[in-house]
Amino acid sequence: MHPAFLDHLLPSDLPLPHDRPFTYAEARDALGGRHAVSTLHRRGLLVSDVRSVYRMASSTDSLAMRIATLRLVVPCDAVVCDRSAAWLHGAEMALPPNGQLAPPPVDVFLPRNARLTNKVTHSGARTLAADDVMLIDGLHVTTALRTACDVGRLLPREQAMAVLDSLAATSRMVTPTQVMALTSRYRGFRGVRQLRDLAPRIDSRSQSTPESILRLRWQDCADLPAPTPQVAVTTPDGLRFLDLGVPSIKYGAEYDGSEFHGPEQAEHDAERRAWFAADGWIIDVLRRDNLFGAHQDWEHVLRRGIRRAQRRRTAPSAA
Questions:
Q1: Do residues 28 and 48 make contact, with C-beta atoms less than 8 angstroms apart?
Q2: Residue 251: what are its φ and ψ, rounded to 5°?
Q3: Which residue has the higher pLDDT, 305 or 71?
Q4: pLDDT for residue 314 is more than 50
Q5: d(Cα 286, Cα 277) in Å, to the nearest integer?
Q6: pLDDT, tens digit, 9 for 90 and up, residues 232-248
Q7: Residues 74-105, buried b or exposed e (16+ Cβ, 10 A)?
Q8: Mean pLDDT value across residues 3-31
């Protein structure tokens, strides 16, 4: 199928399954070549959550769809672990940075002394107890709590914080107390110090990876007042929430990502923040350049905003 011909087809006309995932090879054969697959993926009609596996963008990203996706690449005796297990447990922040653009391999562990060596899986050694593994529709997966302990130890610190927050939001088993209680089991293991540091910080209220990262960095600045996630503020329109804030001085910080804060959302955000300002709040809005990259200035933004809020709260009122 020539890529130019695809311009005249509706998604429903494509000769691909609409109710299940399919492999790259299946898509290539159905469409008549790899260029057609690439074109549909680039145009957003095909979604790839896992390398070399696709689904129609119109399909629902459900648990059943995720299980079916992993079944296409994971051997029946393998155990899904780490980021992939977190994703399967519903942790939306489990994908690595730009994971939507470049789908990651599936993290798996084989119960025998072997490793997978294909391009769609990441395999390594892992010692698992019987109660570390559960079945999800026939697929062996590390439990949410074991997954939390693994990602908390093995992922880069800031990414680990985001995945832990996301797991806590989807599983009642992942709490600061429960994760901290298991850290003694990993004494001497790689990354256990990081796990002990992150466990008390786990917070299910975090709404995005950058929000988790900003909170973690803010907490690392021990001389600043600690932030509270999702601060509830009563407005004439009901409760509204700030990403992070210090209610005692009415200071808040929010992260606006381009994927969720386009032109339509911008007007709503401006109205909401105008009300906060009228109620005495100082709100700083941080974007990608503030938080990441060579010119990041998130700490300067926070310190400047907090100083302003503190000065205003302590300034004598006008006679």
A1: no
A2: -120, 135
A3: 305
A4: yes
A5: 16
A6: 988 777 788 899 999 99
A7: beeebbbbbbbbbbbbebbbbbeeeeeeebbb
A8: 79
Containing 185, the helix (H) or strand (E) segment is none
The band of 269, judged by pLDDT with boundaries at 50, 70 and 90, is confident
CA distance 72 to 69: 6
Distance CA 121, CA 80 (A): 10
Q: How far is CA 82 from the centre of its chain?
A: 13
Number of residues written out for the chain: 319
| DSSP element (H, E) containing 11 | none
Beta strands in the chain (DSSP E): 22-23, 46-50, 53-56, 79-80, 106-109, 121-123, 133-136, 139-142, 228-235, 238-246, 251-255, 282-286
> 17, 147, 34: which is closest to 81 by C-alpha?
147
Which of 64-73, 203-212, 228-237, 257-266 is most confident? 203-212
Give 4's DSSP letter. Answer: G
Neighbours of 286 (CB within 10 A): 23
Distance (Å, whole) CA 207 – CA 218: 16
Which amino acid belongs to residue 45? L
Nearest CA to 155 out of 85, 223, 252 is that of: 85
3-state secondary structure (DSSP) of residue 37? helix
What is the rounded CA–CA span in Å between residue 37 and residue 59? 17
Alpha-carbon gap, residue 251 to 285, rounded angstroms: 11
- Strand locations in 154-199 (E): none
- pLDDT band of 319, cuts 50, 70, 90: very low
Give me the pLDDT at residue 113, please.
Answer: 61
Q: With CA atoms as reference, report the closest residue to 83 among 74, 72, 92, 71.
A: 92
- Could you tell me the pTM of the whole model? 0.80
3-class state of residue 144 by DSSP: helix
Alpha carbon 305 to chain centroid, angstroms: 27
Q: Taking the CA atoms of 124, 127, 130 and 134 in sequence, report the sign of the dihedral they define.
A: negative
Type of residue found at 87 = W
